[in-house]
Design a protein that fits this description.
The chain is an alpha+beta fold and 278 residues long. It is built from ten helices and nine strands.
Length: 278
């Protein structure tokens, strides 16, 4: 009897029901990152794994639809603000954001100039909500939907510290460990040791590791099983307070706020699960 190879039914059905041109269009959009916000057509083609002619057609289609802009006086492209609308619409429906907003307001004061909540998305942290004290002096342009590397941020480290070691390594290896400031940790072993220490003390404290001039303290928001679904953070300017003073002023309040948000989400089932790219 002749043996024949066949693909699993679920794989076959998935391929049959996938609109390949739509999938390719999203690969073009995903080629743009925070590290490389502007790309040439050839760079998009390489990142999206397609030939130049195909990339050219997709880019022009996305330009016509308003999701991609041409950069003036150059051969480069970038995502338009219309792309952000897709993410904002999803965030706006999130129970996490609704429950977090009043808690964040309570964390902002004379010392803490901003309070945020972020979720893990791949190897980055995405800010889901942020409250600032008037005209903040932090000089940091963080908005809802902004993304920062998980490895260098207190928010990212606070989430990672409560995840399995295998997942920690996967997230940390998901992007180059670039030294963003003089205090950024870029050694894998040192980062893993930092995460272990954070798990022991219950919070992550960042001394200007992502942006010079800003202290950040973050605490994970845990579900009923102890899995991190987000992290709450507060930030202050190094010009207004010392690191020790900032920690003493913030740690109890942020720990309490994170517990409050955890209980609120558990009561409503409003979890925002982290996602790690596979």
């Amino acid at each position: 009897m002749k043996k024949t190879d066949s693909a699993p039914a679920d794989t076959t059905n998935a391929a049959k029901n996938t609109v390949q041109s739509l999938a390719k269009g999203f690969k073009v959009l995903q080629a743009f990152t925070a590290q490389e916000p502007e790309l040439t057509m050839a760079e998009v083609a390489r990142k999206a794994d397609m030939d130049n002619a195909t990339a050219f057609r997709f880019l022009n289609t996305l330009v016509n639809l308003g999701y991609v802009d041409r950069v003036d006086d150059s051969r480069r492209f970038r995502l338009s603000l219309k792309v952000l609308d897709l993410g904002f619409h999803a965030i706006a429906r999130s129970d996490l954001r609704t429950h977090a907003r009043p808690i964040l307001r309570g964390l902002v004061g004379e010392v803490n100039e901003a309070a945020s909540i972020g979720v893990l998305d791949g190897s980055s942290v995405m800010y889901a909500e942020r409250v600032q004290a008037g005209l903040t002096q932090l000089g940091v342009d963080v908005r809802i939907g902004s993304r920062v590397p998980a490895y260098s941020t207190a928010v990212g480290q606070a989430i990672l510290a409560w995840l399995p070691r295998e997942t920690q390594r996967k997230v940390l290896a998901g992007q180059p460990l670039v030294k963003l400031t003089a205090t950024t940790i870029t050694d894998m072993d040192a980062l893993l040791a930092r995460l272990e220490h954070i798990r022991e003390i219950g919070y992550a404290l960042s001394d200007q590791e992502t942006v010079t001039g800003v202290y950040v303290l973050a605490v994970p928001v845990l579900d009923v099983d102890g899995t991190p679904v987000a992290a709450l953070s507060v930030a202050a300017s190094v010009h207004r307070v010392s690191l020790a003073q900032f920690k003493d002023n913030a740690v109890d309040a942020v720990l309490s706020a994170a517990r409050q948000l955890s209980k609120s989400l558990q009561a409503t089932g409003g979890y925002a699960a982290h996602r790690v790219n596979g």
